[in-house]
Design brief:
Elements lengths: L4 E6 L1 H5 L12 H4 L2 H4 L2 H6 L1 H17 L4 H9 L4 E6 L5 H5 L4 E3 L2 E8 L6 E3 L19 E5 L9 H9 L3 E5 L21 E4 L10 E4 L3 H12 L1
Parallel strand pairs: 1-2, 1-7, 2-3, 7-8, 8-9
Antiparallel strand pairs: 4-5, 4-6
């Protein structure tokens, strides 16, 4: 018997309890680093060394982090559902927890890609995390973080829309629902399916959404009781 499709949209709150610094919250990374300097197309063109340095630091933080119980709860749900995770996060904690299907909207921190050919993507090893303007791929071309910068299109948004349109249950976790186009994904869900929103400080949502005012780790334990 085919399992129902559970689609999960995750944001920064999903990884915050693993010690991954958020970007937008008070005290987050944008309070320390001007966003357009380190996470925009123009910023990379203007000062690629600064951008490489910024993401090098993020990688060193990431390899020390571990998936939290919320990540593991999503894996537990795979016993009962086909689970598709669509994440705004650039960390690899969903994969390390064991999630079978993860689509990254905003790129992947542990990967770099060629500036000459965006299809040439390389995964960095934990013992070789740093890149610079001098770094080259096997073809001799310079590289950049495999991150979707501000001012760039989101290549995976169309596949993400297709996944949400097929959802039997939609779960939104730890996101301000303020970053577009990702914030518009929930609007593609079929009318009448159950929608759950887990966040301790949720954004305003429509009446048909069940809001769970808890952190990702707490809220996913609540959700497990509801859905299994």
């Amino acid at each position: 018997m085919k399992k129902p499709l559970l689609v999960v949209l995750t944001g920064a709150g999903m990884s915050a309890e693993s010690g991954i610094a958020t970007f937008r919250d008070s005290g987050g990374l944008w309070d320390t680093y001007p966003v357009m300097d380190v996470a925009s197309h123009d910023g990379f063109v203007r000062n690629p060394s600064l951008v490489h340095e910024f993401y090098n630091k993020r990688r060193h933080e990431l390899v020390k982090a571990k998936p939290n119980s919320g990540h593991l709860a999503l894996v537990e749900l795979e016993k009962f559902y086909d689970v598709e995770v669509i994440t705004q996060n650039v960390d690899d904690l969903h994969e390390r927890a064991g999630s079978a299907s993860v689509l990254h909207l905003h790129g992947e921190l542990m990967k770099i890609r060629s500036l000459a050919d965006p299809e040439r993507i390389y995964t960095l090893e934990p013992d070789n995390l740093d890149t610079s303007v001098e770094s080259r791929d096997p073809y001799g071309d310079p590289v950049r973080p495999h991150i979707v910068f501000f001012q760039e299109a989101v290549p995976n948004i169309e596949p993400a829309i297709g996944i949400v349109e097929r959802a039997d249950v939609l779960v939104i976790i730890g996101t301000s629902m303020a970053v577009y186009p990702a914030a518009g994904l929930a609007g593609y869900a079929r009318r009448g399916i159950p929608v759950y929103y887990i966040d301790p400080n949720p954004a305003p949502v429509s009446d048909n959404v069940t809001v769970i005012r808890q952190t990702a780790t707490e809220g996913l334990q609540t959700l497990l009781h509801i859905l299994t």
